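Summary for the lay section of the report: proteins are chains of building blocks that fold into shapes. Here we show the chain for Xaa-Pro dipeptidyl-peptidase and then a coded description of the shape we predicted for it.
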Amino acid sequence: MKNNQFAIQPVSTHQKIAELTQLGFLDDQTDQLTATELWYHFLRHTMLENPSEAGWHAFLTQTLATSDLTLAECRAQQRPVSRHMFQLVALQLLAFEVDVDYDPAHPDVAWRTIQLPALEHALDQPAAIIDAWYLLLCTHTKNGQSFIDALTSRGFLVPLYQLPATQKPLFFNGKALAVFDPTQLINEVVYVETDLDTDSDGQRDLIKVEITRPAETNDGLQIPAVYTASPYNQGTNDAWGEKMTHSVATKLTHKDPQQQPDIPAFPTPTSHRSTQGETTTAEETVHHQATYTLNNYLAVRGFAIIYSAGIGTKDSDGFQTCGSPEQTLATIAVIEWLNGQRRAFTNRTDQIEISAWWCSGNVAMTGRSYLGTLATAAATTGVTGLKTIISEAAISSWYDYYRENGLVMAPGGFPGEDADVLAAETFSRTKNAGDYHHVQAAFNDYLQQMARAMDRATGNYNDFWRQRNYRPNIKNIQADIMMVHGLNDWNVKLNQVKSLWDGLADLPVARKLVLHQGQHIYINAFRSIDFTDIVNLWLSNKLWQVDNHANDVLPDLIAQDNVVPETWTSTDQWEQPGHARQWQLTTDGLRERAVATTDSVTFNDQLPVDQFQTFSRQPTVWQTALVTTNNAFSCQFKTPQFKDDLLLQGTPELTVSLTVSVDHGMLSAQLVDYGTARRFNVSPTMLNRQGLELGYHWQKDDLREFTLADRPSDYHVISFGHINLQNRHSSAQIDALAAGQRVALTLKLQPIFHHLAAGHRLGLVLFSTDFGMTVRGNEAITYRIELGESHLVIPTVR
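The coded shape description reads as follows.
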């Protein structure tokens, strides 16, 4: 394995001594110990399950100190601790396996190979032992967590549970420690009043908020909140969503300018609920909630954990609106309550007001996909108290999720889904039959309005999608932003995060980005990167104001390599302006030297019925045929094999001149890495199910990692794009198109961060119907590409 750690904070010797003293490793007696004695003293403190003399003796006799001597034997011979000895024992403490991960005769080789933090000094003085031990506590084990967290999961910090609230939280190396007893966590529910009336019942919508906070908050400790807005939190209507899913077996048609559909509107409530009393004690507890394991990790480290499904969900009021301004306002209403600017009640009827008296007012938001999307939306309002968001696989424009350049577009893997489908799926008020009975007719009417407003007929950008585009409001962001995205995520595509990353460039906020090789997944339990430590360092800084220099310690951009396993690199930018390579489309493939040519190539979008049906049922079969066979429904262009590795970083741009045989059409493109190689498996490999302990006798997570497939593959799609030929200039503008008319267009493909290995070839495939994402008309349409006027530009790095 290879260890990649980015969240180790450089600290002074004074701070190391203070923190080790705080944890009980140092005291007044340790000042008199030699370097070797101090090392044994530290080791003795790791004997947690059996701290007796018998347990200590067993540890000494079972631990190698040299290739042929145990610790017991070295201690009997009074051998001083050496770097070799320290590293060998440390590898065992970190759960690495002898003769598997290291050779006991050469622990230094394993130390470098695994990429463990380097020891800087000889270990002949107590001060050097303190430095080395402190660094070891920060170092990750083979099981994907820091040594201090590994000790924590074995009960090391349990004695600190008894510290008074005034002495908590505690931090080690700038990161919060799990010194809050998970058995004493308080779980409660409140109902926040919004300024909305989306279900038109004449009352402001109440939304249910679920809270988990340490017991020490009842003793005066005010803590920050980590808030996840999850429309899935109270359940989903999968059967309803499946029934509503739109058919994609439909033809593309010619578009004429037409009036934009009306946008559903909601009444504005005029009065608040009257307050019938106040209390500091909630009356309702949390029975069960879907949790995010990163939040579970934070819950015992001094952060209140907040979940809210929002409007239109079980036990809340209102309608689900799929990313509308109303949903954003409902999301930030929780933040406003947490920092004292909004009211909440103990239940839905008695109107007894309750404040977030235990909250410091500092809030972060976390979550993936829809959850991260609402965090992004909230940040663009500039709401007071929101200090940071950690948005994973988040949408920044819903148009780019369900549409693309004038085309109806499915998120990867979900053909036929649309905004109305997602609204119905997440309208969990259906879970309470009586409540649903009263709003069923009104919500169905709203869904019909939404279906008209989102306009599947043209696929154009309109006011419905403009309301759900957060990018124009990026300028309002005041919170620091951490983004996470998969480089193979065809669900929430890469342009969503690239647009946010670029939009933040000139704002006075800190921005961080982690790009991994996954699809639509969480990465907080990956072995090769210290993502949980990164988040802890970040939130300790943003919410607790710990001076841990998180902005400087953490790289601006961390990316996982797609060729070498368990390799993460850092940089300060995604795309370097002025550094790009251009390839012309020719009959010989992609060529960097431009040639004057009048050559053209054609493809036809119609398939035999049986093949069309096969591709419709099995898009993966279509995908393989598209890029690996000579076929009549696409054109393929390839570079020669590259002699050296090439790093492609940024947004590819394709310029094409073409004609089409009818008065409508769409052009699709894929960028392909051709070359036979063992590539990463599509999904992470499970290394240890429930093997990652998030605290002592607390929640667990699955340890995972991307590993190479057993068999080589011949290609990998790295980017793609689609465009309606009648939206050549804008997704909101309909352009004229006649059969046989030559048109020129420029299509931006999905951003990439890709390592193209030496010996591989870069391929461009042009076609029309995308069986994974677009509508499927199977029309007899011929496309002619004019090669002399067509080229591909891809940003690269030096």
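Put simply, here is one thing we learned. The mean pLDDT is 96.
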